[in-house]
Amino acid sequence: MNKIFFILFGLISCLAVSQETTSKPLLLPVGSSLQASSLAAYGLDSAYVYRKVDSIVTTGIKNNAFPGAQVLIAKDGNIIFHEAYGFHTYDSIQPVALNDIYDLASVTKILGPLPAIMKLVDEGKLDLDVPFSTYWKPWKKQEDKANITLREILAHQAGLQPYVVFLNETLKNNGQFKKRFIRRKSNNRFSNEAFDGIYVKNRFHRKMYKIINRSEVSAEKKYKYSGLTFLIFPELITQITGVSYADYMEQEFYKPLGMKTFGFLPSTKNFSNKIIPTEVDTMYRHTLTQGWVHDENASLLGGISGNAGLFGTADDLAIIMQMFVQNGLYAGKQYISEKTIKEFSKVQYPENDNRRGLGFDKPYLNNNTFKIADTYPAPEVGASSFGHSGFTGTFVWADPENELVYIFLSNRVYPTRENRNIYNLNIRPSIQQIFYQAFDNAKQHQP
């Protein structure tokens, strides 16, 4: 079935390519909204691009890297490539559609709390270089955390623990729920819905914060990825703004940007779009996870978190990533200052062999000197570029230098997170590289 699908898709792609115009790309005013264009408008070899992308994605599907995927490319504010491949699951029943909604996993970090933090820095309500305990008061009492700055935290230079499995706090040795934390029916004290028929105690987040506050900090300050503070950033944002984190993001970013499906808890919003399934969970949901956040820690917070929980379409992602490419400006509105975008998106501690920006991931240091199999992401990306990956198989990347946005969406954790061929086959950087090479080839063949 999959082979037939891809043969048909290839024929359709070739037909579409033959119908593309060779007119010049639309030159948009700085800070415009995204427009539709084509590969041919930029002089790219459409047949080559479609063939190469199809080959890599098909190889991924055949090797169980994911059952389906989407790829979107925007250049100069023009969407020039957006294609869907494969199916929601390996039974080949529901084809992937361009408007499908994905669980973005850790991509949430840079599209949830991070824009809010940047805006609060712009407004002088947060300072990157004073102790974080200035804002998060419990850390004043923790000797090993009292002087850690927000800059160190966001650059993963603070020595914080990488992760805590809070699910362990809720389960007995036999795998059953501890009733003091989780119930099967909701009531006044258990109204936080983690999944259909699973309700978490309303105050469980306090237990999570307490564990984070007391977690160990390494005395050695070097690059060490940690997602812990992204679990407390939503509470911090709420405290500073006086507006709940989810509502703040909706009011200040998602709605004014025109992002139609973007946000938390998509299964509660009656979208007509299909939601891509993630894992057949054997840990505590014991069924297919679809429309509910995959990440267990985010689910215990009721699906609204800073480490995971955001869902959206490729088109929605393209909007906010284009806003980043345009230094905080989109459709004539300045959401974040150019100065702050550039500060957050630059490498912070290169002397410590730390490639990270503030919240944003960055290319490997000296990335263009490595073989493609050893690069992250593609070797040709600009040094000023930035983005993030997600555990569910998602990836977003903004390259202001080349005015490129790259989005790859998949559900690589279906049916199990043990599927790691998306990494082993180097799929996401390899697809990204195709477009840089296509632009290079087009330049070489210009008259």
How does this structure look, described?
The chain is α+β, with helices and mostly antiparallel strands and 447 residues long. It has a domain at 113-253: DD-peptidase/beta-lactamase superfamily (Beta-lactamase, 3-Layer(aba) Sandwich), CATH 3.40.710.10. It is 30% helix and 12% strand. It contains 13 helices and 13 strands. The chain has helices at 2-18, 46-62, 108-111, 113-122, 150-154, 204-214, 233-241, 245-257, 296-300, 314-325, 338-344, 421-424, 427-444, and strands at 35-36, 68-75, 78-86, 102-103, 182-183, 192-195, 198-200, 311-312, 329-330, 333-334, 386-390, 394-399, 404-410. The strands form four sheets. Strands 1-3-2-13-12-11 form a six-stranded mixed sheet, with helices on both faces. Strands 5-7-6 form a three-stranded antiparallel sheet. A hairpin with a 3-residue loop joins strand 11 (386-390) and strand 12. The chain is globular, with a radius of gyration of 22 Å. It starts with a helix and ends with a helix.
